[in-house]
Amino acid sequence: MPELAEAARRTNAWACYDCGKCTASCPIARIGGNYSPRRHVLATNLGHREDIIENGTLSSCLTCKLCDQRCPAQVGYTQLVQQLRELSHREGVEPECPHGGALQSLMRMMAKGGTQQDRMNWLGKDLETDAAKGEVFYFTGCTMYYDTFFPEFQLNTLNGTRAAVRLLNRLGVKPVVSPTERCCGHDLLWNGDRKNFELLAKHNVQMVVDSGAEVLVTSCAECLRTWKIDYEPFYTGKMPRMMHITEYLTDPNYGGPNLKYKAGEQRRITFQDPCRLGRHLGIYDPPRKALTALPGVELTEMRRSGSGAMCCAGGTWSNCDRFAKQIQVQRLREARETGAEVLATACPKCQVHFRCAMKDPNLGGEIEIEMRDVAELVADALE
Fold this sequence. Notes:
Rossmann fold; 3 domains; 18 helices; 7% strand
């Protein structure tokens, strides 16, 4: 197939040594199952469409980029998966959503427009925002949907969203929070639905351009990755500076020394590196700087952290199976082994997937740990 040859060229797949480091590094392959990144690379190079599209394993990839990082031939396997999923989607093959496709349907409704959203109901009277114009745009993402969609998990991802706005206010910033914001489209893109992703991208880019914002801040690692990398082709002028909230808080030009904290009790915190923030964007230090600046906090790292961190195994709402659950349980055990009282996160998706794992009735309290967004912890420590 010419599409496979082009995908191999774009992602350097043709240079594969067939050494197997990708499969040996893959969290899904290591946990079990019939999944191997190397097989997909080989099938792409050989033009074997059926081995890619019809065997049903393409959606197993977490796109965590651990294999990319360790590949000696610099094969861009994660990018290859994205292109192969687009090809599969065009042929009518789409991964099965364990939530009945409701989340994908919601994203596609937003992409087509015409549906009135109440995206501002979470804003309390104590938070100052502007609905249209400002120098800083705060992109909320889909946290207002997660907490409602998964009530059984007792989530509080919106607390991190509110905390981020509260911190921006404390720094003298009245950010734009737009009622016309739509999902960034991350999950649609990574499931192969480029058409609806592009509709969302064009809408959101125009919304931010119209706001006049020079800086875009978000608390979601997936949103940040989408804005910084995948939205770039949709800008005709200068793109705003795009930052994770922890970058904004620790940048001396924005946050840094301008935040004052009260005395705090001694406590141990460990941090979960989101794949999109870490291996996709190379952002490791800002969340840690934000946490270690808090009085009384001792940051203790898990056995696998930073560039070698294990992901939450959530992916794009298409990997929710027994193998992903085992990865989540392993990761929560690592967090517990540090002796930390709190697991700090920098992406709401991590909270969703870990909270789901914690609800396993067979594990009892073995893997339970308090989870808080980094912005929540910082906001709670303010004078």
